[in-house]
């Protein structure tokens, strides 16, 4: 088999997860934007649509029959959030509950992960903080990439040195992004997870294998084996961090659905009863501006559900380990 059959060039890397979505606006809505702000924008959009249609005379908001019928539908829809929230909480709690042997295996798995990194990094101890673990992992990736380059450059092959330098640059770019994110955000935040997702470990595993295979007789195996082992550890760690992040976001979403759902039902019920008050209903109840604000409130639970689910579903659509095959993200 020829040398070119195994060459992996940095320019051929598949798109990183952040590159899956081409539009920056769409990317902001799906993943990067603050979830509260995105939800507020969705609610504001509902209010704006109702306000514009009311101003154009397409819809009427001052007749008791249609308005109360619509509000009863809103109330019924928001009450269905109760079983939805219970289901969401069951998903979260299912990961917390377990038999003693299951909990022991889970704890032993985390310990084994730390022990593996300690052996790869060549350090006696690793600080217990998750952020310290990630920093040690990225530092080990950098060191391993440097060892791969040094081993390749020592052969005197310009081609091997060039490819190894490109490989090291790709690793450094990824680990620098993770380090910057960790300095700005807490462990488990979306920003730190996004930086980890941007490191294209699938390509790096393939590139390390091709470098070693093409020059198997010229270089030692140890640096390449350490590099691949560290990348695999990074893959597992990234998937674990993604699981913790999803668990935290789902728990947050369930609380928000209860809070906003209660508020939406209360406001809609009071709005309906205002039509039964003696005399004419308050002016705000029959005004377009008032009904627009009401629309923002009753759509708030759906807006939060949409905001959080968009990010979670987008993140979960990324391949979990990305090391057997190079995919498009």
UniProtKB/TrEMBL annotation:
The chain crosses the membrane at residues 36-57, 69-93, 256-277, 283-306. The keyword Transmembrane applies. Keywords: Membrane, Transmembrane, Transmembrane helix. Residues 1-20 are annotated as: Disordered. Residues 10-20 have a biased composition (Polar residues). The lineage of its organism: Archaea, Methanobacteriati, Methanobacteriota, Stenosarchaea group, Halobacteria. This is DUF4239 domain-containing protein.
């Amino acid at each position: 088999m020829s040398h070119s059959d195994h060459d992996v060039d940095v320019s051929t890397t598949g798109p990183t997860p952040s590159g899956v979505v081409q539009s920056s606006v769409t990317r902001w809505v799906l993943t990067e934007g603050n979830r509260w702000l995105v939800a507020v924008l969705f609610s504001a959009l509902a209010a704006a649509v109702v306000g514009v249609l009311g101003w154009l005379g397409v819809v009427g908001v001052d007749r008791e029959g249609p308005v109360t019928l619509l509000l009863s539908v809103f109330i019924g829809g928001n009450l269905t959030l109760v079983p939805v929230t219970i289901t969401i909480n069951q998903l979260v709690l299912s990961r917390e509950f377990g038999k003693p042997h299951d909990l022991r295996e889970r704890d032993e798995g985390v310990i084994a992960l730390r022990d593996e990194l300690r052996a790869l990094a060549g350090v006696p101890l690793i600080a217990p903080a998750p952020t310290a673990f990630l920093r040690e992992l990225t530092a080990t990736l950098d060191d391993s990439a440097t060892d791969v380059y040094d081993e390749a450059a020592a052969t005197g092959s310009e081609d091997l040195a060039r490819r190894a330098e490109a490989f090291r640059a790709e690793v450094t770019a990824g680990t620098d992004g993770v380090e910057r994110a960790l300095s700005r955000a807490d462990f488990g935040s979306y920003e730190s997870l996004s930086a980890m997702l941007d490191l294209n470990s699938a390509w790096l595993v393939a590139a390390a294998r091709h470098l070693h295979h093409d020059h198997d007789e010229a270089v030692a195996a140890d640096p390449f084996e350490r590099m691949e082992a560290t990348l695999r550890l990074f893959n597992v760690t990234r998937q674990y961090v993604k699981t913790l992040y999803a668990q935290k976001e789902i728990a947050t979403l369930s609380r928000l659905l209860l809070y906003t759902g209660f508020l939406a039902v209360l406001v809609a019920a009071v709005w309906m009863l205002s039509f039964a008050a003696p005399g004419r209903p308050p002016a705000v109840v029959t005004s377009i501006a008032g009904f627009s604000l009401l629309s923002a409130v009753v759509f708030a639970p759906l807006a939060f559900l949409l905001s959080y689910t968009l990010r979670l579903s987008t993140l979960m659509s990324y391949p979990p380990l990305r090391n057997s095959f190079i995919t498009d993200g």
